[in-house]
Amino acid sequence: MSDVLKAKINKRFVDSAMPPETGDTRIWDIELRGFMLRISSSGRKTYCVKYRVNRQQRWMTIGEHGLPWTPEAARNRAREVITEATKGVDLSETPSERAKSLAGKGGLVIAKAMRDATIGQLFELYFRDGPNDKPLKRESSWSVDATSYKRHIKPLLDDVVAKDIRPSDLAAWQRDIADGKTSQDVKTGPRGRSIVNGGPSAAA
Question: Which of 27, 64, 142, 188 has the largest CB neighbor count within 10 A?
């Protein structure tokens, strides 16, 4: 059995919400229609969103309460999902599933564009959709990924079409990094500097 309630989902409410003895409790947000907090009898608190894409109802689990999913972050994600759904885009789909969906609806040009995506475009999808696909991954790990991409991948491979990359291209890319081709000395402020070193460790 599930209890269904309505409330303003904020940190104070979520932290104080008690789990049911059995089943789960669903609390619908009074500010954003479709945004919901589900609390299981084990005490697990999970943010979800209900929406419609092309007249079909969909459910998407955003993630468990806690970093990175605070109530505000989860609500923003739910709002993004609902907004994209009004355009016919289902963010619960992976990029490949989205391409198939678009192709099935006559969006062959868009699907082909995704197949011909550059490294930069794929990383854009990775950083946009990754936190939702991997909610348990630490924020610091996403930051490390973003820094590595910006410093060592973007300068050399950003405009390269992913499907055209060969093993020899990757080997050349690693050699370039090891040789210091991506080394930089960037001024970050009146007194700040960011020194980017290449070398074998960065190329590994």
Answer: 27
DSSP 11-80: HHHHHHPPPPSSSEEEEEESSSTTEEEEEETT--EEEEEEEEETTEEEEEEEEESBTTB-HHHHHHHHHH
pLDDT digits (tens, 9 = 90+) for 48-101: 999 998 888 999 999 999 878 999 999 999 999 999 899 888 888 765 566 556
Q: Of 84, 155, 165, 171, nearest to 120 (Cα)?
A: 155
The rounded distance, in Å, linking the Cα atoms of 117 and 95 is 11
- With vertex at residue 90, the alpha carbon angle to CA 84 and CA 93, rounded to the nearest 5 degrees, is 140
What is the value of pTM for the model shown?
0.49
Domains of the chain and any CATH numbers? 6-92 (3.30.160.390), 166-203 (no CATH)
